[in-house]
Amino acid sequence: MPALIEDYALLGNCRTAALVDRSGSLDWLCFPRFDSPACFSALLGSSDNGRWRICPSQPLTGTERRYRDSTMILETVFHTEQGSAMLVDWMPVGEQDCVVRTVVGLSGQVEFDMELVMRFDYGSSVPWVEQAQPRTLTAVAGPDMLVLRSATDLHAVDHRTGSRFTVKAGERLCYRLSFQPSHLPLQPAVDAELSLAETEHYWRTFAERCPDVGGWTPLVKRSLLTLKAMTYAPTGGIVAAVTTSLPEQLGGERNWDYRYCWLRDATMTLLAFMNLGYYEEAAAWRKWLMRSVAGNPEQMQIMYGLAGERRLPEQTLPWLTGYEGSAPVRIGNGAATQRQLDVYGEVADAMSQAIRAGLPRHPRGAAIFRVILPYLESIWEQPDEGIWEIRGEPQHFTHSKVMAWVAFDRAATLAEPTEEGRAQAQHYRAVADRIHAQVCSRGIDTEHGHFVQAYGSTHTDASLLQIALTGFLPPDDPRVVATVARIESTLMRDGLLLRYDTAHGVDGLDPGEGTFLVCSFWLADVYVLQGRMADAQRLFERLAGLCNDVGLLAEQYDPQAGRMLGNFPQAFSQLGIINTALNLYRAQNPAQARATAVAGTCVE
Predict the structure, then answer these.
(1) How far apart, in whole angstroms, are the C-alpha atoms of residue 443 and residue 466?
(2) Of 217, 215, 239, 243, which Cα lies nearest the Cα of 227?
(3) How far apart are CA 536 and CA 529, in angstroms?
(4) Beta carbons within 10 angstroms of residue 308's beta carbon
(5) Angle at Cα 396 formed by Cα 392 and Cα 399, nearest 5°?
(6) Beta bridge pairs of residue 257
(7) What positions does the domain Trehalase-like N-terminal occupy (predicted)?
(8) 3-state secondary structure of 8
(9) For 106-120, what is the mean pLDDT?
């Protein structure tokens, strides 16, 4: 049985990531990329599907853990009656794919068990394991090889590798697991101490640029580090999460692969980077975007692979039972081929804010938008699958139309100050006005004066909060105020928001899921815009209190069970921490920062 989702901590090297639980069990790891087949898949099955556990063999009297300050280096301290020891876990930032785990004796002496279960291809392939050198094992399955270099003697039983050892105060025992193509000669071992120093320097150099946001600075910095760790450095792409198929409802079918780059999620990450002054990361993402969307505008997707790959076929893995029995386990994502009109607005808004923030215009950007905007003009009145990627019939989602308005509104603002540019701006403004008029006519419940999820519907949707955050209408507009009140009254569960009511069947799936955390952050951001500072502060403190002991959030939260749900850690949720903290800080400190909301897509 895997640990609770919130019991995991993240390791990363800006190419891939691993999840380690409180007991020292590394239950999820994909080499060499975030979206590669996992070699440890116990998270979605059992230990037979692969894991690497290092834990005291004696009963524990206590455990605590933390990230080393401003880094992604995880320190877990185990206490027993015989003594205490610390497990230090990290992934070196460099060219070699490796996880290093060092056991450090703190007091007395502690007996440990190490168990390594190596399984390739999401736990389905048992490798051929042999000893290459003393205390060095290689595990080969087709093109892939893992290499374990151990500080202690190893023994093998039933396709598992184990070791029992004792560490005394002051002793350090190091274990290194590296990945390489199986046809290449054995790569040299990572120098653990040098790697630790270089990795610590890398993360601290990155984190020290984080601006002060008052008492929320440590939490913001941790979210920023997490988002950086979820960035694929070779291309600048940003994954929505490092996992697949962690359920939105325990035992349910809402299990999706989030190890890809959504234009929407990555755009909001770009804005967070810019708002914190990380323009190098923002520029890298924009280059990824310009490469990924280049081509026929009709073929623009809502998500891509880490390098801009377009084919992300969805399939199930029947040999994995799923997290706590939540099947099916999926890899790939069929939503890649959906039509979601909102992504055009999010991308246009990101381009606009990047230029306003001082990033030079991308030479390909204007040309791409000259092609994309006419295409959007031809399709914006069509139904789509919307921001929540429904698997039911497409609808005229109000949020999608609002974001189409954003695309033309920002395009009008970005137009060049030439005669041709002014003509384009005038045309884009006319299209934006038509969309605005239609939304205000067809997207409203005329009886109660609030916006609705889709044209002709009576239901609401948390994405309607973007009406205020994008500047579609002022936050004090009576229709916005009524929409916020409707969302509060129908979607709030124990102080947190659902995306929408799944019982209405709009998404074509069985009903039931947790509260969607980023929606509650959006609500807090709207509170800031409306001057409801006490409500915003209260909601943000509630959300911040849901972070696990190392500052991480999943996609969703079940208030009744008191548990996280969905893929983990989730970029959307970590973004919520950053943006809402900035909004609150700027509103409360107008002399130090602009008192305006900057969440997701929004205006100033």
Answers:
(1) 14
(2) 239
(3) 10
(4) 18
(5) 105
(6) 244
(7) 4-151
(8) strand
(9) 97
Residue 104 near residue 167 (C-beta atoms within 8 A): yes
Extract the runs of DSSP E, i.e. beta strands, from 68-217.
Answer: 74-80, 83-90, 97-117, 128-133, 136-141, 144-149, 155-157, 160-168, 172-181
Taking 70 as the threshold, does the pLDDT of residue 345 lie above it? yes
Cβ 292 vs Cβ 305: under 8 Å:
no
Answer for the pair 473, 467: CB distance below 8 angstroms, yes or no: yes
Domains, in order of start, for the chain: 5-183+192-204 (2.70.98.40), 209-588 (1.50.10.10)
- pLDDT (tens digit, 9 = 90+) per residue, 229-259? 999 999 988 899 999 999 999 998 889 999 9
10 Å Cβ neighbour count for 368?
Answer: 19
pLDDT score of 593 = 56
Specify the pLDDT at position 364: 67
Token output for 437: 């008029």
Q: Are 81 and 61 in contact (CB under 8 A)?
A: yes
In the block, tokens 């049985």 appear at: 1
- Cα 28 to Cα 14: distance, rounded to the nearest angstrom: 16
| Whole-number pLDDT of residue 365 | 66
Say if residue 559 is preceded by a cis peptide, omega within 30 of 0: no
pLDDT in tens, 35-50: 999 999 999 999 999 9
pLDDT digits 0-9 by tens, 322-333 = 999 999 999 999
| pLDDT (mean) for 434-438 | 98
Q: How many CA atoms lie within 13 A of 140 on its CB side?
A: 12
DSSP 3-state helix, strand, coil percentages of the chain (rounded to 5)?
Answer: 35, 25, 40
Q: Which helix (H) or strand (E) holds 467?
A: helix 466-469
Task: Kindly state the helix (H) or strand (E) to which residue 302 belongs, with its residue range.
Answer: none
Residue 244, classified by CB atoms within 10 Å of its CB into exposed (0-12), middle (13-18) or buried (19+), is: buried
Q: What pLDDT is recorded for position 574?
A: 96
Q: ∠21-304-510 over CA atoms, to 5°?
A: 65
Which residue is it, tokens 């929320």? 216
